Amino acid sequence: MSSKLLNSDKLVFITLIVLAAIINLSIVAFMDLESSRLARLMTILLFLIYFLVEKKIVNFWTLSALLFFTIRDVFFQFYEEPLGYKLYLIIGILCYVTLVLERMPKISEINIKPSVIVVTLLLVAANTYTLYVIMNMSMVTHTFHDNLEPLLLYAYGAAMMVLGVQAIAYNNKYNSNRSLLYIFFAFGFIFSDIAALFAYYFNFEMFYFLDRFFFLGSLAMLVNYGLNFESVKEEYYQFEMIDKKL
Description:
The structure is a single chain. With about 250 residues, the protein is mainly alpha-helical. It has one domain. It is built from ten helices and no strands. It comes from Leeuwenhoekiella marinoflava DSM 3653. This is YhhN-like protein. Keywords: Membrane, Transmembrane, Transmembrane helix.
């Protein structure tokens, strides 16, 4: 009976993902940017509701991340306004910091080498410089409203880089199904933001599809990550087996 319920839950979740993908990509293809943003917000709300209904145990960090994504996309509707742009970046930073903090207990068990810290700092510096160059290119017409906005943009990019490095370090250490899921949705969100940057600031229209594809996939994996507590036990046993072999 329980296996039937489990299969039923999986079928509902897969159906939700497929419908969300079809609707969102259709709106991206045939409707305006405002409609596309609203569709993304509604999709996040739908996945949040699904998470709240299906949760057996409250995963505080996953719930917090989903709430931050929801709030961020509320301000995404006002991206061109000074306050909307700032709050979008601030809440976005909190999204990524929350995902980083969620794995911090596992990362604290890892013997982090100085080279990892150096690489992280270099990536943050390179990302900041790249954003600076991009935003000052002649083909980019966007202008900041004040001096705070570029700082928030650089901080947003730095949070992305830290999330990426942490995801790699976590997966290299544990090499489990759960760590693999984490690295997939972490880099999915990163690729989504990169695609969105090129789509919005460089008018590469096709990148809007990549943005939405990566975002929806990552959102679905994040929800699955938060609901699947069996993978926590599985990761423990997988790590124990690997540790014994070593």
